[in-house]
């Protein structure tokens, strides 16, 4: 009996239409737990409706220029702090420019990252091990998701390492590179992480100042921080209207710092509508995480975002996730509770929140706004 189901759109793609570089990426994707392109087809209600390069001036992220900090005045610092607080409250996202990290350093880590992801599949798989095949392990090359479950399979390759309190970058990098290539890659990623961590501490202090709090209200808990770095590679996709690089989600951390290449793909949900973030060379995209939303008594917003694809070129994003130690208690300061008239979230430790997220995600098999599970 003939099937009444329409053919899967991916079955119509001819191998001859895929470039050699795309074929290598496709082999890498298929080697990581799936042999069927149909796994990458997402439900219709989750497929992108806004293309990766749909930039609109009336819907751009706030831009925070940190060059004013160079004059050292308290007045300038307070103005910047209030702008960051406004962006965290209204958008949950903003661009940071003139932040003091040389553009050349960011270009170098982009270069080294691209060189790795464009290696043949056999070479990249040197980074994989029995540990990286374990679903509970989030480090190394090749895991498509890190605790999140989506309705479809993400079209992404990635490399992830811990940075603080103890870096495992060297261990993970040695699984995939050697010689000068290893040293260049390690140096570039270390520079990226070191710069991002310093910038994250400064930004968190400006967040507190902008809310009328002591600058170290949050940052005093970040010594050391518990931070990780993730290098994302989104290969060109033959049918970008059917799949996603990453599905809609919020970040559980305190702050996320993302540096993307000049190819668009990051989309942010603002007032129920998806907005494509236009890349800015040398800029960081900063977003509020779930635990900072609770920590600020809901003043700041942890906002859904996703990664969309295109069928022409690959895209890179370099991400630094900034969070406190696992035993840190996330509890809104009394100044904010008194000003707001009530406490909006229960107190919890960062470790408890991660355990809750993993448990809920595993049981429900989809992403939700997990921080609301702690709302009062």
List keywords for this structure.
alpha+beta, eight-stranded mixed β-sheet, four-stranded antiparallel β-sheet, 14 strands, 31% helix, globular
3D architecture notes:
The protein has 376 residues and is an alpha+beta fold. The protein has a single domain (18-374), classed as B-lactam Antibiotic, Isopenicillin N Synthase, Chain (Jelly Rolls), CATH 2.60.120. The chain has 10 helices and 14 strands. The chain has helices at 20-30, 74-90, 103-117, 121-124, 169-173, 179-210, 216-219, 290-295, 334-340, 350-364, and strands spanning 63-65, 93-97, 140-141, 157-164, 227-234, 246-249, 255-260, 266-270, 273-276, 284-288, 305-307, 315-322, 329-330, 348-349. The strands form 3 sheets. The chain has an 8-stranded mixed beta sheet with strand order 1-2-10-7-12-5-4-3. A 4-stranded antiparallel beta sheet has the order 6-11-8-9, with no helix packed on it. Helix 2 links the parallel strand 1 and strand 2 (93-97). It is globular and about 55 Å long. It starts with 19 loop residues before the first helix and ends in a 12-residue tail after the last helix. 42% of the residues are buried. Mean pLDDT is 86; it is low at 1-18. InterPro entries: DIOX_N, IPNS-like_FE2OG_OXY, IPNS-like_sf, Iron_ascorbate_oxido_reductase, Oxoglu/Fe-dep_dioxygenase_dom. It catalyses: gibberellin A12 + 2 2-oxoglutarate + 3 O2 + H(+) = gibberellin A9 + 2 succinate + 3 CO2 + 2 H2O. GO terms for molecular function: metal ion binding; oxidoreductase activity. Its cofactor is L-ascorbate. Keywords: Iron, Metal-binding, Oxidoreductase.
């Amino acid at each position: 009996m003939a099937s009444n189901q329409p053919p899967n759109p991916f079955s119509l793609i001819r191998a001859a239409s895929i470039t050699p570089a795309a074929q290598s990426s496709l082999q890498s994707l298929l080697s990581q737990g799936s042999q069927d392109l149909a796994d990458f087809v997402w439900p219709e209600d989750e497929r992108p409706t806004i293309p990766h390069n749909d930039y609109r001036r009336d819907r751009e992220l706030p831009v925070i220029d940190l060059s004013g900090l160079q004059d050292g005045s308290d007045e300038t610092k307070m103005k910047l702090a209030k702008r960051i607080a406004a962006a965290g409250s209204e958008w949950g996202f903003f661009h940071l420019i003139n932040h003091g990290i040389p553009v050349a350093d960011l270009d170098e880590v982009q270069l080294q990252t691209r060189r790795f992801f464009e290696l043949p599949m056999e070479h990249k798989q040197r980074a994989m091990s029995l540990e990286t095949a374990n679903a509970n392990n989030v480090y190394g090359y090749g895991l498509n998701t890190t605790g999140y479950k989506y309705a479809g399979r993400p079209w992404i390759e990635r490399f992830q390492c811990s940075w603080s309190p103890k870096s495992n970058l060297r261990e993970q990098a040695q699984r995939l590179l050697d010689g000068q290539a290893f040293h260049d890659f390690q140096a570039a990623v270390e520079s990226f992480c070191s710069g991002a961590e310093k910038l994250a501490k400064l930004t968190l202090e400006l967040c507190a100042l902008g809310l009328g709090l002591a600058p170290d209200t949050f940052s005093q808990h970040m010594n050391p921080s518990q931070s990780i770095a993730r290098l994302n590679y989104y290969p060109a996709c033959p049918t970008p209207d059917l799949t996603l690089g990453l599905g809609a989600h919020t970040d559980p951390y305190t702050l996320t710092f993302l540096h993307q290449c000049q190819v668009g793909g990051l989309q942010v949900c603002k007032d129920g509508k998806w907005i494509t973030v236009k890349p800015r060379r040398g800029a960081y995209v900063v977003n509020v995480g779930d635990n900072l939303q609770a920590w600020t008594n809901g003043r700041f917003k942890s906002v859904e975002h996703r990664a969309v694809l295109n069928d022409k070129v690959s895209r890179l994003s370099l991400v630094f996730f900034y969070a406190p130690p696992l035993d840190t208690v996330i509890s809104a300061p009394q100044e904010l509770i008194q000003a707001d008239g009530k406490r909006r979230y229960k107190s919890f430790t960062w470790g408890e929140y991660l355990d809750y997220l993993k448990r809920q995600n595993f049981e429900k098999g989809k992403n939700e706004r997990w921080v609301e599970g702690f709302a009062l």
